[in-house]
Amino acid sequence: MKKLLRDTLRSSWFQRAVGFLAAEWLRLVWLTNRFTFEPGGKDALYERIEAQLPAIFAFWHGQHFLTPFIKTKETHRAKVLISLHRDGEFNAIAAERLGIGTIRGSGDHGSAFHRKGGVGAFKEMVRALDDNYNVALTADVPKRSRVAGLGIIMLARESGRPIMPFAMATSRYIQLDNWDRTTINLPFGRGVVMGVEEVHVPPDADAETMEQCRLKLEEVLNEATRRAYAAVGRPEGAKRG
């Protein structure tokens, strides 16, 4: 039985089906929630962002499922970093169905960086930014929720592109009791896209400066998340729908 379950989870037909259903669920959530854009409204937020593209878009693990929908124009070309883990296959299929390119590998710069395809993924992200693609990735690394890793800081230093932290929240959601507080957004409510100040990493940043940038990114991402949930009238952590 275990082998049958494992083989099913790894099968391409099952992964495609889950990815398809996930994408269409997210599309339903996006279309049935009344979204606002902060600060300053959609036009002001996008005007500020578009002046600095291509950029590195950062968000927390478990809070990222609606992020494909911030791409509102064909010129907003984007790729997202997705892990090589089996769960990543579902996410990759869903992202590509929603018009987002994928880069497969690890954003962690720990001991498993080489084994998890981190080096190749890092180089591909740099090339994507050079080719005028925006790159999106989670700032925190697996099992260390809401602690920004150095990988995204290194990417900003190498590419010379700004990091744009943001958060998205809906008034109706379910939050799982797991390491990254995965949020399953629900339809028929209110939503917000919350942008905050950018983080710039100097090209000659030393270890101390990079650590300061990492802490700054952590601070502004937490602030964006707090403000996003406050804007929809739901304190983060509530699990009711």
Give a short summary of the structure.
With 241 residues, the chain is an alpha/beta fold. The protein contains seven helices and nine strands.
Coarse structural class = alpha/beta
The separation of the N and C termini measures 34 Å
Q: What low-confidence regions span 5 or more consecutive residues with pLDDT below 50?
A: 111-115
Question: Gyration radius, to the nearest Å?
Answer: 17 Å
Order of helices and strands: HHEHEEHEHEHEEEEH
**Main sheet: strand order:** 1-9-6-2-5-3-4
Figure out the total of helices.
Answer: 7
Shape: globular
Report the sheet-strand fraction: 15-25%
Task: State the helical fraction.
Answer: 40-55%
Largest sheet: 7 strands, mixed
Average pLDDT, to the nearest integer?
88
Count of strand segments? 9
Note the topology:
Elements: H1 2-10, H2 12-32, E1 34-38, H3 42-50, E2 56-59, E3 78-82, H4 86-97, E4 101-104, H5 118-130, E5 134-138, H6 151-159, E6 163-170, E7 173-175, E8 183-185, E9 190-195, H7 207-231
Parallel strand pairs: 1-9, 2-5, 2-6, 3-4, 3-5
Antiparallel strand pairs: 6-9, 7-8
Helix pairs in contact: 2-4, 5-6
